[in-house]
Design goal:
RNA-binding, 7-stranded mixed β-sheet, Rossmann fold, 21% strand, alpha+beta
RNA sequence: GCAGGGAUGGCGAAAUGGCAAACGCAGCUGGUUUAGAACCAGUACUCUGAGAGUUCGAAUCUCUCUCCCUGUACCA
């Protein structure tokens, strides 16, 4: 009976599904083991052989743990929200849910063929409303929480409001926005509800902010930092620009230190930990405050820039403002005339850029903004509110609003209202203020070098730039800002060598020496890191050094015995400070401490820890993602929808693109408003403009953004524990039983995305008592990538060829010169002419390709370029020409040139006798990808060799964590192993099943030795995730048992269990044939017994001066001296020594004997 | 630049201080059989990226260098 893998695999896959063999139970006396593979995004391309690697490893471990008596949870699901389905929807109009469903079905089919022991009853899909209900729920928990620095954990927002009511916020130590104002308990009580909510938003763990984001115009969405590669989008490679938008943010920075500390408690790969550590980027140093000096009269002091716009967008805004001034609305025009004629004693500007907005009218000296609104789209309410919030709180302006009607019908009333505001005492100050009140805060890791400061550099986007720039420098600074704003992030990165900057004309005061320090701006200082300003120490920092050299700024040396004439000196260890007053002679460590101490005495600095980690942007302008459970009330404040009304399901839209007004795709939905009376999603038409007093009907617009890809994947590992619970994210019993993931397997590309965010959410859930463990995965393994082998050959690139309209292009293109052997064996030029030939390919072993490249045969070709052939038609680097040409229409009429001649339309023309006729491709290892024509489909492998062969082979390829090239040819090795294994159990006549039931244990010594050697090795290998070596071990074992003609059940039964985690189908089949009624899945793993491996003697290698010369079989009972005596007495030893006396004899019992001399 | 990982036959690799190359692919020789293939038996090659050190003994530990991969970057 032959090994019929097709039949066997189908049979057992059916059996497992029918009997729910791998269903995990939440109540069991067995110890739990939770092994998880990262769930896939179900892409349209399906699986290739690289994808299952991690799943196979996880499955082997899961099956092994079942044999070891654990209650194993091994679930699988789909990360089914994502961009490709949405892109496909945009192109075809097909709903992403349909695309996703189709893809999932295809994935499932492919996964099922591989015989995984997944508990499919627990499947989750992130795009399923029943699942994302709980993603929305976690978001609400985050919204309702703040981070208490005193207790060092997240707490409910009610504990915060309780403090505010009793003490105000001055005693609160919390992670919050930088611009949070201080207030007393009385102030708090005086605040309106909206004002209170604005304050609370500064504390919540998820909050709204105008964040500078990575905007990808081509994709119409914001991307996270980890979704950008080399300045372009990871998906599609589109350019990315910086843009300010109001976004939901996650206050992950609150957890920076704990995310760092937690790494010590988990068994994750060091490179992964390192990249998280770098991403969090903790640096210790000091924050130092520099006072800005008053400008001297000679610098024309007192004239400060009126530039109030956000510097990064100023160019665009100015253009826009100019245009708007030219085309005022009637109401704007009327108010402008009135403001100029009414003798208000205050100068107004119209259409003036402030921050990222253009306001209608503004008095810069009075900090008063007047806005005139026309008919506005309801969704703009939210934006207006946000704009007002920003202008009032961040920029210190007062904003008053009028409608067009008010202005046109009652201009006198409007003017008197404005007068009232102008007279109110709260206005004033602002942009007229003296810059010497200003302070520049910097972060430095080298406070010890404070006396080396010879200038300061601000990021061009820094807030103070406009304020401190002197009249003389204004033009230069503005020009520089504009130039920088135009440069994309990519340009800036590509060109880090160019040094650029501008002098502001202003000076700061050195905190100790009180010397004036010039203030520059330069784009090597990043607005997004630290405070966006640096104290420049050219002698100690290469960037500062280069900047100083370039602009001819003084470079004082504050290091003892160091030459800084060529470059900066940055070695902390060797630092001895000089020329630095009280720091003289101190080492780095001591100087840092002293400098911080002195700064604290002055009140101009303190020790500080800075993190590179930024709060994470949580809004995406996409359709195919989780909708936020958020609506905006009449004041534009975000409100959470109560838990019991979740999920808020994605609305239907007609188009999946952003709206014409630039709103996210959900802006296309017609049913996307929240009725607080009925708690239902209702038509947008029911929303009334809240600007009109008293028309509030309790129906509000819903949030238009959706959540990012990492939202759903940040809680799925917990949800698997109790996936169908609709009352809670999971039951307490379930989470207390499973607790956390014991083994997590997945790719390292998620290091700073999914794996960091998930840790953040888990810590948050832990703080709030929702999860029992602070880290969600104890052990993590990164499987390596399986690379593909692309098949290259050269293509002569022809621009002109015959078409239906006659010949197009160059006439020469259809003449191909080749070499031909003449009668004398010499080579002649051979001219081949055929108008139908479109492409010419040269076999990789075609000798004259160089001459083509050099142009010696160049007439027909523009160039010779490499061409990738579909690896499906390549075997052992030989192309199946006919198969390839007939399956690729465009290459049908191609000429395939080989050393012996050429092929065209299946016919061979010989030019050289006896030379090769096969077309050879050149293999090159690349990432496996459809576009590289090098993907290998697991289905084809399963058809030809079976799932067990594929599983074994993927493991056999090499160490799990290493990247390795795929080579289908090698699979015959493991496949014939399986056949040998099968034959071992079918040693009867005609291959009949034969396993001896009642063996005589006598005479099985060798077999037991083989078995237990195998048990020991396989068990060790699985525990160490060294799956490749256990496959070898199986091969050795089967080879040995076959040689021993072993048929004993006592050997073959345990062997089937050993093999079962790797090749479960064949193991089940053999198990059944040996008389078992139930699945092998929970059969106890064979117990290793050392007694079978006890040896009485050993082949000792005998070395002379470390070189092995021969071996001697000696008893293991001999002690050192006896061994030495036995070896020295031997004739071979004497022969080697040839009369010399050894200086020294090293005897290691059980290992080796080494004779020196 | 920084951080991490790596370099062993023609290829994938094994050996973590003690007989280098187990196991498999490819190659070669022979056999059995065949529509194709498959199967069986046998077999060669190469000496651990370079250099130095520690050691009785180094692929393995230490140092220096070279090259490759991965991640990350004006991070103050």
């Amino acid at each position: 009976m032959n090994y019929d893998f097709k039949e066997i695999e189908k049979k057992w896959q059916g059996y497992w599904a029918k009997h729910e063999t791998f269903k995990a139970h939440n109540d069991s006396d067995k110890p739990k083991y939770y092994t998880l593979s990262m769930f896939p995004y179900p892409s349209g391309a399906g699986l290739h052989v690289g994808h299952p690697l991690g799943y196979i490893a996880g499955d082997i471990y899961a099956r092994y743990k079942r044999h070891k008596g654990f209650n194993v949870l091994h679930p699988m699901g789909y990360d089914s929200f994502g961009l490709p389905a949405e892109q496909y929807a945009i192109q075809t109009g097909q709903h992403p849910a349909i695309t996703t469903e189709t893809n999932i079905n295809r994935y499932r089919e492919q996964l099922d063929r591989l015989g995984f022991s997944f508990d499919w009853s627990r499947e989750v899909r992130t795009s399923d409303p029943k699942y994302y209900k709980w993603t929305q729920w976690v978001f609400i928990q985050l919204f309702n929480s703040w981070y208490n620095t005193d207790t060092d954990k997240a707490e409910g927002i009610n504990t915060l409001t309780a403090i505010f009511e009793n003490e105000g916020n001055l005693t609160v130590n919390a992670v919050c926005d930088d611009d949070t104002p201080g207030f007393s308990a009385d102030d708090w009580k005086q605040f309106s509800k909206t004002e209170q909510e604005k304050i609370l938003l500064k504390y919540r763990l998820t909050y709204l902010a105008a964040a500078e984001v990575n905007w990808c115009p081509a994709l119409g969405t914001v991307l996270a930092n980890d979704e950008i590669v080399n300045g372009v989008s990871e998906r599609g490679g589109h350019p990315v620009i910086r843009k300010k938008m109001t976004q939901w943010m996650m206050r992950i920075t609150a957890y920076a230190q704990r995310l760092l500390d937690g790494l010590d408690t988990i068994d994750w790969p060091q490179p992964l930990k390192d990249s998280q550590t770098n991403w969090i980027g903790r640096s210790e140093g000091a924050s130092v405050i520099f006072k800005v000096l008053s400008p001297t009269p000679s610098e024309g002091g007192g004239v400060y820039s009126r530039l109030t716009g956000d510097s990064s967008m100023i160019g665009v805004l100015l253009e826009r403002a100019k245009e708007m001034r030219k085309n005022p609305t009637p109401a704007e025009d009327s108010l402008w005339q009135a403001l100029r004629n009414k003798n208000l004693d205050v100068k107004f500007r119209r259409q003036h850029p402030i921050h990222k907005y253009i306001v209608d009218f503004v008095s810069l000296e009075k900090n008063l903004i007047i806005e005139v609104d026309g008919e506005i789209h309801q969704y703009q309410l939210n934006e207006d509110a946000e704009r007002q919030l920003l202008l009032e709180q961040k920029k210190g302006f007062k904003v008053i609003r009028f409608t067009n009607n008010e202005v046109l019908e009652n201009i006198e009333g409007v003017i008197s209202k404005i007068k009232g505001h102008l007279d109110s005492p709260s206005l004033g100050g602002g942009w007229g203020e003296d810059p010497s009140q200003s302070e520049i805060e910097v972060f430095t890791t080298r406070p010890d070098t404070i006396f080396g400061v010879s200038f300061m550099t601000l990021a061009p986007e820094h807030e103070l730039v406009a304020k401190i720039t002197t009249a003389e420098q204004k033009a230069e600074v503005e020009a520089y800002i504009e130039a920088t704003a135009k440069r994309s992030e990519r340009d800036r990165m590509a060109d880090v060598k160019t040094i650029s900057g501008a002098f502001t004309g202003a000076y700061a005061e050195h905190p100790f020496s009180k010397a004036p320090i010039p203030i520059w701006i330069g784009d090597y200082v990043l607005a997004g890191y630290g405070t966006g300003a640096v104290m420049s120490v050219p002698c100690g920092d290469q960037r500062d050094y280069d900047f100083a050299k370039h602009f001819d700024i003084d470079i004082p040396n504050i290091f003892e015995g160091v030459d800084i004439s060529e470059e900066a000196f940055a070695d902390k260890e060797k630092t001895i400070i000089a020329n630095s007053d009280f720091l003289n002679g101190l080492s780095y460590n001591k100087a840092v401490k002293r400098a911080i101490f002195e700064l604290e005495q002055l009140g101009q600095g303190k020790g500080k820890v800075n993190y590179r980690l930024r709060d994470a942007v949580f809004s995406r302008q996409r359709y195919w993602g989780e909708p936020f459970p958020v609506y905006y009330d009449a004041n534009g404040m975000p409100q959470m929808i109560a838990d019991e009304h979740l999920p808020i399901e994605l609305p239907e839209v007609e188009k999946y693109l952003p709206t014409e007004t630039g709103e996210p795709p959900l802006g296309n939905a017609t049913n996307w408003a929240w009725d607080t009376n009925t708690n239902k999603v209702v038509s947008n038409d029911l929303v009334t403009p809240s600007a009109v007093e008293g028309s509030n009907n309790g129906i509000y617009p819903l949030e238009l953004n959706t959540m990012p890809g990492w939202a759903g994947s940040s809680q799925y590992f917990n949800r698997y524990m109790d996936p169908h619970n609709d009352k809670a994210i999971y039951s307490e019993e379930a989470v207390n039983y499973w607790e956390d993931v014991d083994l997590y397997i997945g790719g390292s590309e998620h290091a700073t995305g999914h794996l960091l965010y998930s840790r953040f959410w888990q810590k948050f859930l832990f703080d709030r008592g929702i999860a029992p463990k602070e880290e969600f995965a104890r052990k993590l393994i990164n499987q390596g990538m399986i690379t593909g082998t692309s098949a290259f050959a050269n293509q002569g690139y022809v621009t002109g060829y015959k078409t239906e309209n006659g010949f197009e292009g160059k006439r020469a293109s259809n003449v191909i010169f080749l070499l031909k052997q003449n009668e004398n064996g010499k080579k002649d030029k051979f001219q081949y002419s055929n108008n139908d030939v479109k492409y010419v390919f040269f076999s990789s072993d075609y000798e004259y390709i160089e001459e083509y490249k050099k142009g010696e045969f160049a007439a027909p070709f523009n160039q010779v370029i490499p061409h990738r052939f579909d690896v499906g038609f390549v075997e052992n680097n030989i192309l199946n020409i006919e198969g390839y040409a007939s399956n690729h229409d465009s290459f049908k009429d191609s000429l395939f040139v080989v050393p012996g001649g050429f092929w065209l339309n299946g016919k061979f023309t010989e030019l050289f006798e006896g030379k090769s006729r096969v077309f050879v491709t050149r293999p090159e290892v690349e990432k496996m990808s459809k576009s590289k024509y090098n993907v290998v489909n697991p289905d084809a492998i399963c058809d030809e060799y079976g799932a067990d062969s594929l599983r074994l082979y993927e493991m056999f390829l090499g160490p799990l964590e290493q990247s390795k090239p795929w080579n289908t040819a090698g699979i015959t090795g493991v496949h014939s192993f399986l056949k040998k294994l099968w034959r071992l159990y079918h040693s009867g006549s005609n291959g009949a099943f034969h396993v001896a039931d009642s063996p005589s244990l006598e005479g099985l010594g060798e077999a037991f030795k083989t078995l237990h050697k195998t048990i020991k090795k396989v068990e060790e290998d699985i525990e160490n995730f060294s799956f490749n070596t256990s496959v070898s071990t199986f091969m050795i074992c089967v080879n040995e048992l076959t040689a021993q003609k072993c048929t004993s059940k006592a050997i073959l039964e345990p062997l089937a269990i050993l093999v079962s985690p790797y090749a479960p189908h064949i193991a089940e089949e053999l198990w059944e044939k040996m008389g078992h009624q139930t699945s092998i899945a929970e059969a106890p793993f064979p117990k290793f017994e050392a007694k079978y491996l006890v040896e009485s003697s050993k082949e000792y290698p005998i070395s002379f001066n470390g070189k092995m010369r021969f071996t001697l079989e000696l008893s293991l009972d001999l002690n050192k001296d006896e061994l030495e005596a036995a070896v020295m007495a031997h004739e071979k030893t004497q022969a080697q020594l040839a009369g010399r006396t050894p200086k020294k004899i090293i005897v290691v019992p059980g290992k080796i004997v080494n004779i020196v001399g």
